[in-house]
Structures are given as structure tokens and as C-alpha cells.
Amino acid sequence: MFIQALMTLSGLCNGLSSSLNGYLDLNKARMSCFGRMLLGLLAVRTVNLQEIALSFDSEAKASSRYRRLQRFFAKVDIDYVKLACWLFRLYYTPESHYYVIIDRTHWYWGK
Description:
The chain has one domain (about 1-90). The protein is built from five helices and no strands. It has helices at about 1-20, 30-45, 50-55, 60-75, 80-90. Helix 3 (about 50-55) packs across helix 4 (about 60-75).
């Protein structure tokens, strides 16, 4: 059962990485790290890197996985416009209607 769960998680990570591959210019190792991080984020439902690192299916120590995430954020510049394009393509069709909601809480309009 555990092996089957790992294979499913690995397949999800590979599918996510291949889906993102056309949008983000990352090498294979960084794309894998990003995919695992996204899946970990969904699994643990927090942005705490230590908890996300614990969700990785890896033989490495938890401290090594945590350090890997720190290095990822220190060295990788994510193109958020391309990431947004991927999200829109993933969830919306060309026939969909879009509603833009803007929160102006911290905007200094007119000052």
C-alpha cells in the first residue's frame, strides 16, 4: 500500500512537472522541487517550509529537504506571469467568462 501511494505521488509530481514545463524555464531538478513543493503545499495546507519539506517523499533527512527549499527560493526567479498563464489554462476554457475582483485596501489612490 505504501509503495502504491509513493508511485501515485511520484506520478502526480511527474505530471505536474510536465504540465509546467512549457511555462517555466527551470531545469529538471528545480522543476521536480517546484512540483513536490506544490503538492506538499496542498497536502499540509501551510506555507511553512519545514512542514512542506516533511511532506516530500524522499530518503534524505528533513533538514536537507528544508535546505533544498531554501536554496530554491534563494536562487530561482519565478515568472509569475507565466505561472498565471498556466493556472488560467489549467482551470479555464476560452469560452469561460472572467470576473476581476480587485482589493484596494492598501492602495494609495489619489494621494
